Predict the 3D structure of the following.
Amino acid sequence: MSRRAAQQTRSRRAGTPDLAGRIAARTAKVGIIGLGYVGLPLACLFAEKGFKVTGFDIDPKKIDVLSAGRSYIKHIPAGRIRPLVKAKYLAASGDFAGLKQMDAIIICVPTPLTRFREPDLRFIVTTGEEVVRHLRKGQIVVLESSTYPGTTTEVLKPILERGGLKSGRDFHLAYSPEREDPGNETYGTAAIPKVIGGDGAKALKLAKALYDGVVVKTVPVSSPETAEAIKLTENIFRAVNIAMVNELKVIFDAMGIDVWEVIEAAKTKPFGYMPFYPGPGLGGHCIPIDPFYLTWKARAFGINTRFIELAGEINTLMPRYVVGRLAEALNAHAGRALKKAKILMIGLAYKKNVDDMRESPSLTLIGMLEEAGAVVEYHDPFISRVKPSREHGHLTDRRSVPLTAKRIAAADAVLIVTDHDNVDYQRIGKHARLVVDTRNAMEKSKARGRRIVKA
């Protein structure tokens, strides 16, 4: 055997040079596990950049929809998916044996909380157990799921090494936190810098090369633990500041001061201030959950995260505040109690212009209102029916109602929870007997009405 051939053989055994070359040439096959709000746009992005991508998911409905070139997420149109499937750059599969053919495996599975607000890593664990069955030398595995510092190396790595392969020697492991903002038309996946922490220098180099091919910028950091901490820091920053303005809303309301007017004027200061906005409670998969991942981990070091937990407590109590304001408004303007009152709720999604209802405060509000004896209907132009959820299973298959003048007028109160842009607020203002607005949507749309109460 020639010296060059021997070097090539050693390179193939080591995995790194061959994989780096395939990444550079875009011949590396990319497998993405979890085709939800994080995994699907990432799969589309890699496919659009010339990589052959296979998305893996345990939901056969998602596999069927994607294989037919259609979409199940509102802000990812079928027109983006169809040409990628047709050109065979994007495929979907429920057969995880196909992971063995992948050069890069990216894990984008949920990381919820238990009912006791402790990390629930079962999806990461079961995914790791599936990956190790098909893991081979030379692959890189990247975890993107939001989690506490130490998950990649303390939880996922030991699972992947059960088959006898070692991280840094036989395969490579990294963590790169997802930074998706569903519905954000300015910052899509490709435009958001990617933080990367590798389990060793080779893993970091390979992960950086992989993401360099698809995003505007990569930000390498010293370890997976640092990358995991960065993700939590970003979302805790938002959670704490939202809690602050939610508390200010309650205080200023008692003083007869409009918090929205305060924020609009305050943000004219060109330094030292960043606007955050109050609401009916936190939603989505990150901000309501990530702070509790850090508080749980901090307890292992004997540290109490009082500031973070206080913010979580304030945000968690906001739906109760909204219900209280609604009850007060009904009594003051209609002379009636919440019991048997007809409430038309606007918005089921956790944020405007998306079809994502994960951890939405709307679900909590429906439950609280109905427990108080109110009759609740909802209208959401993006969510035609309530999908199954762990905490609100009794609402499954509840249907969105049309936003007609007759239905608005029949309600004792219209409760605006999500400020979708394509809702006719003028119609609401014209026909509603009472509007309780948690998003300042009526004022922002310049809608007028007889009775509008901010909550």
Remarks:
- The chain has two domains: 3-222, 237-454.
